Amino acid sequence: MVVQAVRDGMTQIAAAKKTYGVSLRAVSKWMKLARDGGLRALRPGKRGRLPGSGRLNHRQAVRIRRLIIERLPDQLALPFYLWTRESVARLIEREYGITVSAWTAGRYLKAWGMSAQRPVRRAYERNDAVIERWLNEDYPQIAKEAKREKATIYWGDEMGLRSDHISGTSFALKGQTPVVRATGQRFGCNMVSAITNRGELSFMVFEGTFRNATFIEFMKRMLRQAMRKIYLIVDGHPVHRSVAVRQFVADNAERLRLIRLPGYCPELNPDELLNQDVKTNALGKSRPTSKAEMIGTVHRHLHRRQKEPHVIRNLFKEKHVRYAA
User: Fold this and answer.
1) Type and span of the H or E element at 68
2) Most buried residue, 42, 107, 175, 272, by CB count within 10 Å?
3) For the segment 127-145, what is each residue's pLDDT rounded down to a tens digit?
4) Quick one: 134 and 263 in the same domain?
């Protein structure tokens, strides 16, 4: 109708705005189509998705979802490090030849119960089979043996603290990064600690490198304070595996047993959560100006935690360490 009206003498502007209520651009496009291909060219084309752009069926969606949950992009030979909307779209195209936009990939991810989250770092060297055996066989057996011997299971770890550590957030005007004033001098201290799922806490704050003598002194302190046999679970730090430490444990075998976690799985150690607590709530909320002040701050915080066993017990409610509760 529009093309015929223009051919009969009506201007394109009059046909577009006054008579038919369409855009001038549409009228211009229709006139060009009619000139090139006649009125037949104005017939509407086939509507719907282009070939190869159809949506996933149920079986395909289930498989793509499983691949995203169980693997990382680089494990599937994709040129991505993280699962993003773009990497998911690439996976769908490679597996099924279906082209989807990043927006559509985002809708799939939301429908599959997924959201964008900050990833947790895991070492390539970790042995998932060994970790699975620890969770399902090794630790349950250790717990049974500890109950039979009326022993207390402690989870131990050590950590270094630095004066330039900053944690937490601070409100500021948008676009203006908040500034924290602190000493320009760098100093630090170290701590070694051990906790139980009953809320008990032993610790020692020290200066210098973590050495055999330091760890042995810490274990001596634990033995002096303990009324029952100690099962001390630690990571694979070289000090924990040293000859001197092994000899000390052997000499005190009636009252002490040292057990090592599988390698590269710090998330399984509840004492790592105490380390985070110290960094966030001791150093994160203070700005020590000297090493002595830092050591005093850490001491006071840990002494306070010793009087708050419910806080220590709550650490064992975190999902990765719930097995030890």
Assistant:
1) helix 58-70
2) 272
3) 889 999 999 999 999 999 9
4) yes
Distance between CA atoms of 268 and 66, rounded to whole angstroms? 25
Task: Report the C-alpha gap between 80 and 125 in whole angstroms.
Answer: 20
| β partners of residue 152 | 230
Answer yes or no: is pLDDT of 53 > 80. Answer: no
pTM, 2 dp: 0.70
Domain tally for the chain?
A: 3
The pLDDT of residue 6 is: 85
Question: Is there a single domain that holds both residue 107 and residue 137?
Answer: no
Using CA atoms, how far residue 21 sits from 1, 106, 149, in Å, is: 12, 37, 90
Q: Is 169 exposed, middle or buried (0-12, 13-18, 19+ CB in 10 A)?
A: exposed
Range of the domain at 37: 2-42
User: Same structural domain for residues 139 and 104?
Assistant: no
Neighbours of 267 (CB within 10 A): 16
Q: Mean pLDDT for the chain?
A: 89
223 plus 146 within the same structural domain = yes
Report CA 199 to chain centroid distance, whole Å. 26
Residue 119 lies in a domain: no
- pLDDT tens, residue by residue, 241-266: 999 999 999 999 999 999 999 998 99
Pair (246, 273) in one structural domain: yes
Encoded amino acid at 179, one letter: V
Distance CA 71, CA 80 (A): 12
